C-alpha cells in the first residue's frame, strides 16, 4: 500500500525542537524520503529549496519574531505545495494572501497534518500537465 507522502522531500519550517522532531518522524513514517528542518529565520531562503530538492513544505508562519510569509510566497511562485502548521488562528490576517493553502492549527492531530500535506501534494499534481 502506498503511503501518503511516498517519495516526498519535505521542508519543515519549525523553531520548536520537540515539535520538529515529532513531525520529522511522522513524515518519514508516512513515506517521506527526507525531511529537512529549518529552525531559524536566517537559514530560510531560496537556496534551501535547490540544495535539498524540496518537493513539499510544512511552514510555521512565524519563527521567533520573524514572519515567514515572504518564503510562503516563494513556495507559491515555484509551485511547491505546502501547508501552514501554526499556533496562529486560520482567521489571522497574515493568511489572507494564501487562499487555498491549508492551515493546520496547533495543537493538531497527526492525522490532520498528514492529510493536509498529502492533499496539498495531490492538488498540486492534479494542476500539472
TrEMBL record:
SMART domains: REC (SM00448). It comes from the Bacteria. The keyword Phosphoprotein applies. Residues 9-121 form the Response regulatory domain. Keywords: Phosphoprotein. The modification 4-aspartylphosphate is found at residue 60. It holds the Pfam family Response_reg. This is Response regulator. It comes from Nitratireductor aquimarinus.
Amino acid at each position: 500500500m502506498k503511503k501518503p507522502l511516498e517519495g516526498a522531500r519535505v521542508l519543515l519550517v519549525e523553531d520548536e525542537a520537540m515539535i520538529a522532531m515529532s513531525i520529522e518522524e511522522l513524515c518519514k513514517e508516512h513515506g517521506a524520503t527526507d525531511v529537512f528542518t529549518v529552525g531559524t529565520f536566517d537559514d530560510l531562503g531560496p537556496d534551501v529549496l535547490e540544495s535539498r530538492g524540496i518537493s513539499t513544505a510544512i511552514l510555521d508562519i512565524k519563527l521567533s519574531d520573524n514572519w515567514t510569509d515572504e518564503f510562503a510566497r516563494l513556495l507559491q511562485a515555484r509551485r511547491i505545495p505546502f501547508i501552514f502548521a501554526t499556533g496562529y488562528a486560520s482567521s489571522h490576517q497574515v493568511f489572507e494572501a494564501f487562499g487555498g493553502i491549508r492551515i493546520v492549527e496547533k495543537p493538531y492531530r497527526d492525522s490532520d497534518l498528514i492529510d493536509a500535506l498529502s492533499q496539498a501534494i495531490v492538488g498540486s499534481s492534479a494542476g500539472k500537465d
